[in-house]
Amino acid sequence: MKENRLRTLWKQDRAVVNGWLAIPDSFSAEVMARQGWDSLTVDLQHGVVDYQRMVTMLQAISTTDTLPMVRVPWLEPGIIMKSLDAGAQALICPMVNTREEAQKFVAWTSYAPRGTRSFGPVRAGLVLGADYPEAANDHIVRFAMIETAQALDNLESILSVEGLDAIYIGPSDLSLSLGCKPTMDNVEPKAAQAFEHILARAQAHGVVAGIHNAGPKAARARIERGFRFVTVGSDARMLISGSQELLGAMRA
């Protein structure tokens, strides 16, 4: 079975630096993957990437040592199973608000007897190893997104779900749900307090804590506090910021 880079880094108590892919193109995914990211997440929830484009992007990433991940659009078994069959080694599921929803997510990402995932790893079996059917349950990394006040209320029960490897804070949505301005880095005090609470409770349960960031300064600070998965920027945002920097210099 191919190494899961996330599990390897976490065993060493190192943080995973994750990039975000919103541009539906295999070449841009390949360019990103060759820059040295620990992992790259293809975002199916927001933006313009469809399933077929996602498959080609996973193929491009797999030519490198970067681990391919997918954020699925929603807690729905079909797309969860198809993303794993396509070769995603980790999944992020948005808006997990209850223990029951976390249990469904784990079940749909696990083969029997542990779960109810349907068998058919068409691409995953080709690229991740001949022993994929036997090893997949322990290989796949499962992130539940904590991004609502309801999820915050149910945090203890969500974190106690067996087989849930990590939680992932969606700063903007969680801030909105708490009545705060939807930002990622310079969040309001109420949201910042919630983030720290989530981190502390995840650590107490032995669950990895991850978070989305707008820039490296916030990401580094969060790593120092104990987060072990940080997303820093996306391909689309870097294209925008790089263009703005160049044009600003030209027009100054």
List key phrases describing it:
alpha/beta, TIM Barrel, 13 helices, globular
What does this structure look like?
The protein is α/β, with parallel strands linked by helices and 252 residues long. Helix content is 47%, strand content 17%. An eight-stranded parallel beta barrel has the order 1-2-3-4-5-6-7-8, surrounded by eight helices. Helix 3 links the parallel strand 2 and strand 3. It is globular and about 60 Å long.
CATH topology category name: TIM Barrel
Provide the gyration radius in Å.
Answer: 18 Å
Q: What spatial form do the alpha-carbon principal axes imply? A: globular
CATH architecture label = Alpha-Beta Barrel
Poorly predicted ranges (pLDDT <50, ≥5 residues)?
Answer: none
Q: In the CATH hierarchy, what is the superfamily?
A: Phosphoenolpyruvate-binding domains
How many angstroms does the end-to-end distance come to? 53 Å
Overall helicity: 40-55%
Percentage of residues in strands: 15-25%
Q: How many helices in DSSP terms?
A: 13
Compute the number of strand runs: 8
The arrangement of helices and strands along the chain is HEHEHEHEHHHEHHEHHEHEH
Strand order of the largest sheet: 1-2-3-4-5-6-7-8
List the domain count as a whole number: 1
The mean pLDDT is 97
Biggest β-sheet strands, sense, barrel: 8 strands, parallel, barrel
CATH class descriptor name: Alpha Beta
Structural class: alpha/beta
